[in-house]
Amino acid sequence: MKRVFLFGDVADTFEANSAAFVEAAGGRNAVIALLLMGGAGWEKYVSRYSEPWVRLGASQVVPIAPDQGSLALRPKDLSVLRECTGIFMGGGDTRKYHRIFAAGEAPAIIQQRCRSGVPYGGVSAGALIAPSACTIWGSKASSAGNEYLLRAEMVLDPAEDGDTQLQVGEGLGLLDGCIVETHFAEFGGFPRLVQAMESTRSVWGFGIDAPMCLEIQDDSLAIARGRGRAYILTRTRQLRLGVHVLEPGDKLAITDESDSLIARHVTVTDDNLAVDLTDGRSISVPLAWFPRLQHGAPEERGNWRLIGRGVGIHWPDLDEDISVEGLIAGRPSGETQASLQRWLEARK
Q1: What is the rounded CA–CA span in Å between residue 25 and residue 34?
Q2: Are residues 71 and 149 in the same domain?
Q3: Which of 253, 287, 316 is the last residue of a domain?
Q4: Residues forming beta bridges with residue 307, ordered by sequence position
Q5: Tens digits of per-residue pLDDT, 240-279?
């Protein structure tokens, strides 16, 4: 079983929230690789993780951090990743964690270990970069006609922190079709999670309060632990979201669309959009339902990819997203004429 543990922060619930992770890592036989970003005095942060885990019975915690002034992991660090029974990434500057651990050999090793049953845990930055797409930095979003803040707290200072525009990128690849936002209630993370979902075309967004841990089992079941709430957002189309609110002990099937709502193949003609489903059915709707597809060139219509393991379809050249659930329900595009006109003007 693949198990990914996403912690909102190292709060007073951290030890209790870690019990399931330590047990999954082997309990009294657990050897946990603790990934930290390094820097001056980084060793003092080890105990905030290791001491609760040792009290829970873990036999060994092996810290991994790059040498001072380096972003590269050493061969012995990679060996620890290949041999440990649990992997955990700490919190801090997400940009540094991303440069260190989402590059080189580390992501492939972590993916392989996680697929083989070694649990992964991450707190704050370590939770953010766990999925295939991740939020790296930023508290502001700007476009040609709009600008807005994405966090109510911890608004970054451009003079001190540099560019504060939202930055997204490739994560570790442990979870597909989703993106994570930690410190959710504490920092007012809803706007940033929504924008990150839009920027990455993620189907699901996980908002996790600081005292919470959200475990994801086999990409299909979410389990909430701790204190506070976890929020699971489902993106059906551009800026259209559904929300599930989980309290401690709650569980949610995050692929409850079932196989009947999973796309396998897409065909676009001048007149119709046809989608083959994994249950053997095919859905065909008029192309006029989706003006962006109708205005697209054949090569643009043909450049599509499945998102969220097939619950949606994305056309990158046309900036169009369509959910299978929406097709089955008979819903045409909800885009306004004003929005469509702006898009057409930008294509000239």
Answers
A1: 12
A2: yes
A3: 253
A4: 312
A5: 888 999 999 999 988 644 445 788 899 999 999 999 988 7
